[in-house]
Amino acid sequence: MEQNPGDISRKDISGLVSTGEKMLELLDEMSANNEHEYQKNRNIFTSEYGKWYAKCLPLIRSMVPDKATRFESLYHTNKRSGMNEYTYTIQDYIHGIYFKDRPKSYTDAILSKRLKEQMSILQASVARTSDFTFDMEQFVKINPINGLDSSSIVKQNKLIDIDFVDDHYNSIRTEINTCFKQGFYMASLELSKRLIQNLLVDLIRSNFPLAGEGHRSLYYDYLKEDFRNTDELLKELSEKKHDFNVNPDAIDYLIELIGPMEPKKKPESHSFGVIPKRKDIQNLRIEEAMELIIQLIDFIKD
Q1: Rounded to 5°, angle at Cα 74 from 177 and 64
Q2: Cα(266)–Cα(179) distance, integer angstroms
């Protein structure tokens, strides 16, 4: 009996994984090709990727909704003020955008890293499927409320949609999103700022891992017996940006993202700060800052 095209099974998902692996192989081979072969293979990749992404996206939104935003942002994003190797997307590549003064293989390597991350998200969906098929209509149905699909409504109640490697951070993310959903915006903002502070500590530690070199003082205050606050960490990042194993422009961009979250206070201001509104928090680009820190850490470790 022929399978209904509206049904997706574990086997179908495995087929998408297989296609993704073939695209990665194509990217690996491209650097060794002459210009004619390079362009030919590039055209094959862009054509195959478009069809692959269109099939994967509704699947990811249904099976691993907590990773859907990240999956989409690897393809395209409207949340950046500039483009560098950390904000570069697969859509940039499809549009023919390369980094100036860099060989094409440099851009291909960044693209490969983006696709590999998408592949890992897709593979996570395999573990969440049962041996029987499920109906595609159930996860692409249009919600009658404002014409939004159900995943969009879920996203509106989330401030952060990142799957952290650290389970402790995932617990904090859950608290942040719970506060945000319930309208406790001051609590969600303060917890978000604290999480960013910890991620900044992780970033500095990842680049300066040797305790014996005096690097701990970059992120830890021995007199206070506590980690440095965000302002101090940003200052260290700015002063040491050329010592990091990443593009210094990425550090500047990160500081630009986080700066508005720590506004300067006047003596006559309320010491506790202004209670933010929902839109105020959404405009702070909190998730983008966290994603960039994670990407920087990954680049340093790689």
Answers
A1: 50
A2: 28
Residue pair 30/108 in contact (Cβ under 8 Å)? The answer is yes
State the Cα–Cα distance between residues 91 and 68, nearest whole angstrom.
Answer: 16
| 70: its two tokens | 């990240």
Structure-derived torsion over alpha carbons of residues 231, 235, 236, 240, reported in degrees to the nearest 10: 150
Please name which of 264, 58, 265, 248 lies closest in space to residue 152, comparing C-alpha atoms. 58
Residue (of 223, 254, 222, 224) closest to 238 by Cα position: 254
What mean pLDDT is predicted for residues 262-273? 68
Residue 290 has a CB neighbour count (10 Å cut-off) of: 21
Contact between residue 207 and residue 301 where contact means Cβ atoms under 8 Å apart:
no
Residue boundaries of the structural domains of the chain: 10-142, 167-301
pLDDT at 137 over 60: no
Answer whether 0.85 is exceeded by the pTM: no
Which runs of consecutive H residues, i.e. helices, occur in the chain?
10-30, 35-63, 68-75, 90-94, 104-126, 137-140, 150-156, 167-182, 185-207, 230-240, 248-258, 278-282, 286-301
Torsion of CA 119, 10, 154, 54, to 10 degrees: 60
pLDDT at 236 over 80: yes
Q: Under the phi-then-psi rule, with left for phi > 0, alpha for psi from -120 to 50, and beta for the rest, what region is 146?
A: left
Q: What does DSSP assign to residue 223?
A: T
Counting Cα atoms < 13 Å in the Cβ hemisphere of 255 gives 16
Lookup: tokens for 115 = 């696709």
